[in-house]
Design goal:
By secondary structure, the protein is an all-alpha fold. 78% of the residues lie in helices and 0% in strands. It is built from 5 helices and no strands. The protein has helices at residues 2-20, 25-34, 38-42, 45-58, 64-88. The longest helix is centred in the last third of the chain and has 25 residues, at 64-88. The mean pLDDT is 92.
Length: 93
């Protein structure tokens, strides 16, 4: 159970880093200029969470597709919780 939780947290963390990190902004811009759907992918935590879940799932002991799907849900929930907190708790940021 702990291994599953760590796998999902790793995938969700990777998703959020790829989506929001200011250090990776140049990477996102470069990839988006080369691949037409990449900008849409980087703006969607559900989509990006699925693909990061597949990548992390490929290296874990769990079913890759199930980790991808679970990661999509976890990534979306965490991302939208953060957005809601920013809006309600820290509205000026």
């Amino acid at each position: 159970m702990a291994s599953l939780l760590l796998t999902l947290l790793s995938s969700t963390g990777l998703c959020l880093i790829l989506k929001h990190s200011s250090l990776l902004e140049g990477f996102r811009v470069y990839i988006s200029s080369k691949i037409t759907k990449a900008q849409e992918l980087f703006n969607c935590s559900l989509c990006l969470g699925f693909w990061t879940g597949l990548a992390i799932g490929a290296t874990s002991e769990f079913n890759m597709l199930k980790i991808g799907l679970a990661s999509a849900v976890c990534s979306w929930l965490v991302d939208h919780t953060i957005l809601l907190m920013r809006k309600l708790i820290w509205p000026d940021t």
